[in-house]
Structures are given as structure tokens and as C-alpha cells.
Amino acid sequence: MADRSVRFEPARDGLRGTVRVPADKSISHRAAIISAVCDSPCVINNYLRADDTNATLKAIAACGVRVDNLEEGDPVVHGAGLRGLSAPAEAINIGNSGTSIRLLPGIFAGQKGTFVLDGDASIRRRPMDRIVTPLRLMGVNVEAGEGNYAPLAVTGGPVKAIDYELPMASAQVKSTVLLAGLFGDGPTSVTEPLACRDHTEILLSGAGVRMEKKGLKAVVYPPDRLSLESVDVEADFSSAAFFIVAATLVPGSEITLEGVGVNPTRTGLLDIMEEMGADIRLSNERWAGGELVADMIVRSADLHGVEVDPGITGRCIDELPLVALLGAYARGDTVVRGAAELRVKESNRLSWLAVNLKSLGVDIKATYEGFFVKGGEGIGGGAVKSMGDHRMAMLGAVAGLASREGIDVIGFGCVAVSFPGFEKSLAALRAGNPGAEA
Ligand code: S3P
After folding, report:
1. I need a surface site. Which of 90, 173, 179, 401 has the fewest CB within 10 A?
2. Pocket lined around ligand 1, Cβ cut-off 6 Å
């Protein structure tokens, strides 16, 4: 991973213009994985071209699935059918991508052969017992390193249907179980403790799979076949979040974000920011392939602190660190609880958030499951260490724009994991260039 540092100067003239952020990472992964087990070709329009999602496409190609436009453009996945994947001789390297290594075992569960998945040093530190446990309950043979860390070896075979209560709010684990449930000997259900992103359910149902949703319980009925003609991927709310926060914090800003996915299981940040007094308007709301999409206009606003309801953390887990940054500029205190999952992301996001923001002079205290921020004068200047975590790097950049003196982000190359054009898009908004494309 490139370890260049980038300096982000204050955006004294405000941010202005229109931007389209890159395609949704979660939906891109799922579209590739589900179309791999379809029995007809699927074109994925606006597939996210970033390191993580490219790794998923390469993984399915390594399993014998023909993928046109593998390297760039809109991929066409010629699915191998429900049980048609072949196990590659070598381990599949998914790099830094947690979603790839956690979701792919779901479709490997019903294949013939042993599929080995591995990744970078960060992936080898991330917990895999959360998928190993339910897969073993389903009768799937999964071998893992000591402590159930990657590499993982999944040997397909008969799959038992289960009723699984998720011990943590995780859309990745829910998805693994639902995907393995495609091969079950009856309907499989997953009950989540809090609502989390439901893109897997939406795409499986679009592929003709009978799905049921009753509150927090999702049920998948094993199909004979799956078929998806095309998937249109909207802009990623989690990428848009950096611009939403930047335009809110930088005085004199007004930006438009086009075609952003606003599936309610993703937009907890909007609820939090509304409570803090932000000025965000949605327009042109429409449905695209079972997903809600909208344009957003964001203007700068004065904020007040907020006590975030732990019940919504599943709907904004990737955005919660940004709430600490908002809190630093708000009047009063900001409190987040119920977010211990942030400790097991691409970095320990609670610890590093506190280390980074403290070094910038913010009065923040990390707890085991969240943080307290005392609102104040915002941020002077300094440096933020990404720790190889794309979202920490982008948070540092936003802090720089809103700061009084500018911020160096150390280790900026990792933004390629989800948003390779991030710097360019920010620069365009700073220059007030309407129509800037990410
Ligand atoms: C994701 C789910 C979340 C999120 C990750 C992508 C997904 O992880 O942090 O960036 O695509 O399902 P968890 O399911 O572990 O919370």
C-alpha cells in the first residue's frame, strides 16, 4: 500500500459545485458474488472500480467464472450457475477487502472442492470466527488459522438450513449466512440485533430468490436457479458522507451530490446530522433496482452536540467516526455508544480516531464502545495517521479542509480501497467547479 502523505489546506472560500461520488462498494461486491452463481449473464452498470471490489471480481474469475471487462468498465459476469464454481489451485488473495473474505465463503459453501481465501496483514488480524461459527453450524467444512483468523479454507458440500441469531450487528455475517442458505436443505433465517444494510436481501430477491423479511428476521428459501440481467449501482452513501460532513463544516459551502444511494439501512448519519442542526436536503428521490436513490444539497451549518441513539449504529457504522469530527465543531457534548464494532474494522477505528483527534487538540475520550467529544473551536492543524485505513485517511482530509491551519494525512494511498478519485473530487469542489466527476 502506497504510503504517501498529502496535505489538506483549509477551504477558506467554501466548497461549491456538483459531484458524483463513486459507486456503492457493498452493492458492487454483492452484485459480483450473486451474479457468479446465476445461470445467465449479468451486466453490472457503474461497478465500483476500486481495490476492494476489483478483488472480488478477480476472485470469482479465479473460480472459473467468465468476466468480460475484468479490469475496467462495466463488467459482464457470465455466471457459472448455482453449483458451477471451480476451486482454484492457489489461494485467492483479496487484499484488504473484509467484505470479499466474509461473503465469498457463503457461495463456496455449496460448491465442489476447497476454496482458500487470504488477504493482507490487516485482513489476517480481523475476526473471522463470526462467519466460521454459523458456517460450521450449517455443516460447512471451514478451516482457519489459530483463533479463526485468515487464511480460510472452505470445502463445499451439503448445507444444513439454520435459524441464526446474529451475535453482533453485521451485514457481512448476515450476508454470509443468507448466501450459504441458497444451498440449504430448507429455509434459513437470520435475525439481526439491529437493522443493518440489506443489499444482499434486495439483490437476491431481484435474482428470483424467494426472500421474506419480518422485522429484523430475513429468510431465504433455496432456489433452483438465480438470474440477474443487470444491476445499476448507485453512488455510495458512505463515500458521499465525507463530502456531506465537509460541506457542513466549511463555512460558505453549498454542494450537490448526485444519484446517492439513500437506502434507510445506510443513512443513520442523516438522522444524526439533522438532530445536530445540519442543512441537508434530498431531492429527486427515485427507486433503482429495489434501492432508493436521491440527489442531495448540503449547505454549511452551525451544529450542536448530540447523544446518538445506540439503536441506529447498525445504519451508520462506517460513518460514526465522522460524528466525532462534527462533534468537535458543535456546541455542547457529543456521545456515541453501542459502536464496539468500530474496533474491528480496517483499523481499530475507536482508538485511532481518539489518538488522531487528540493530536489535533480535540477533547475526545474513546470508551470500549464509543466516544465522548466536548464541542469547541474545531481544529487548528497537525497530522492524521491513516493506519492503512481508507476511511481514516478521508476523515483526515475533511478535517484539513475544515481546519484553521491545514492537516497532513500520513499514508493516503489506502483511499484506493474505496475511492481512488477522492483527492480530485475534493479539489474540484474547492475550486467550485460544477459537474466535477469523481
Ligand atoms: C459492509 C458491512 C459493514 C461495513 C463494511 C461493509 C458490507 O461491516 O463496515 O464497510 O458490505 O456488508 P460489518 O458487516 O462487519 O458491520
Report:
1. 90
2. 26, 99, 170-172, 175, 197, 317-318, 341, 345
C-alpha separations of 313 from 142, 265, 272, 339 in Å: 30, 10, 10, 6
Q: How many CB atoms lie within 10 A of CB 281?
A: 11
Domain 25-219 has CATH 3.65.10.10: yes
Which residue lies with its CA nearest to atom 12 of ligand 1? Answer: 172
Instruction: State the average pLDDT for the chain.
Output: 96
pLDDT at position 304? 98
Distance CA 173, CA 388 (A): 23
Would you say the pTM of this structure is higher than 0.85?
yes
CATH 3.65.10.10 domain extents, the chain: 5-23+234-437, 25-219
Cell numbers standing for residue 303? 451544529
Homologous superfamily (CATH) for 5-23+234-437 = Enolpyruvate transferase domain (3.65.10.10)
Expressed in angstroms and rounded, the spacing between residue 382 Cα and the centre of ligand 1 is 30
Q: Cα–Cα distance between 410 and 4 in angstroms, integer? A: 7
- The CA 101 to ligand 1 mean position distance, Å, reads 11
Burial class (CB in 10 A: 0-12, 13-18, 19+), 22: buried
DSSP state, residue 412: -
The Cα 69–Cα 171 span in angstroms is 28
Q: At 249, which amino acid appears?
A: L
> Which H or E run includes 434?
none
| Arithmetic mean of pLDDT, 25-48 | 98
Using the mean position of ligand 1's atoms as its centre, give its distance from the Cα of residue 173 in Å: 9
Closest atom, ligand 1, to C-alpha of 174:
14
Tell me the pLDDT tens digit for each residue of 285-296: 999 989 999 999
Contact 230, 290 (CB under 8 A): no
